[in-house]
Amino acid sequence: MTVRLVAGAAAPPAGAYDADIVILALDRAEATAAAIASALDQRGARCHLTVLDQGSRPEALAQFAALIEGRADASLYASAENLGVAGGRNLASGLGHGRAIVGLDNDATFDGAATVAGILAALDVDPGLAALGLRIVADATGGDDLSSWGYPRALLARAGERFEVATFVGAGHAIRRSAWAAAGGYDSRLFFCWEEYDFCLRAIAQGWRIGYRGDLVVRHKVSAEHRVAWSGRRWFFFVRNRLLIERKWGASWPELMPRVAGYWAKGARSGLGGETWRAVAAAAAMEPGAARPLPAAARAYLARVDGAHRDGFARRVAREILAGAGG
After folding, report:
1. Distance separating alpha carbons of residues 118 and 227, to the nearest angstrom
2. How many domains does the chain have?
3. pTM value?
């Protein structure tokens, strides 16, 4: 993949430093500029900011470059094509070597200048954590961003607390670099949707744990017009990637049929039945690799931190599947 330096340092520091802050950019000029400023404002940790642009308009790219030009603690790169979330984060993360990789969406900002320092302290105190999910609040209201709540609904009442989870939400998160390397980063084939869960399953299978910290906050500019709509493309990746992940861990197609039927019903209710079948066919055509069941310890961990907080199968079908694709 061809990537070129647009502005800032040619590379991160040669010596040790604490964190690489990674932002993927694609237009959203004002929001991305705010995300960059928030990252550059972090104090109490040695950080290097890497912004990877994946196809912004020239005027937006120039705006990002103006914020980073001449800085030794930040680099702006441009890729020759849009690699998606998974591929883009892989590329950007691989450009650095800080002991933590902190991901921030380009429509989000850290809630304070000490957020990254707090992330590092949390990772340092618990060496078994592979990654941390941060609390995501709506920038306009300060209330929890329900569209970014990636955990069992029963845990929403504890959004300000700390607990272990099965995954993290990409809008604001951190990954210990040693865990990143051990688990192999993201599966770039996923492009976007479920890439965090896929990474976490591989880390959990290796004996790592995932944490959630409600006291470490990211503010998210929730904007429906800037999101990929629950139509065609997003629904395709949602279904295809989730099925592929199940296949990676040894699920057979007969075992997946209830899930496939549920996706079809949910997609059909939103006029996406054809897109659902296209996603299923694409998942069947993708090579899952050396499929194997999750280790018993990993299954027990997932049951404790995730399954124990979820409704039974019938209620989940009614809420998650029989609701429309945007529900």
Report:
1. 29
2. 2
3. 0.93
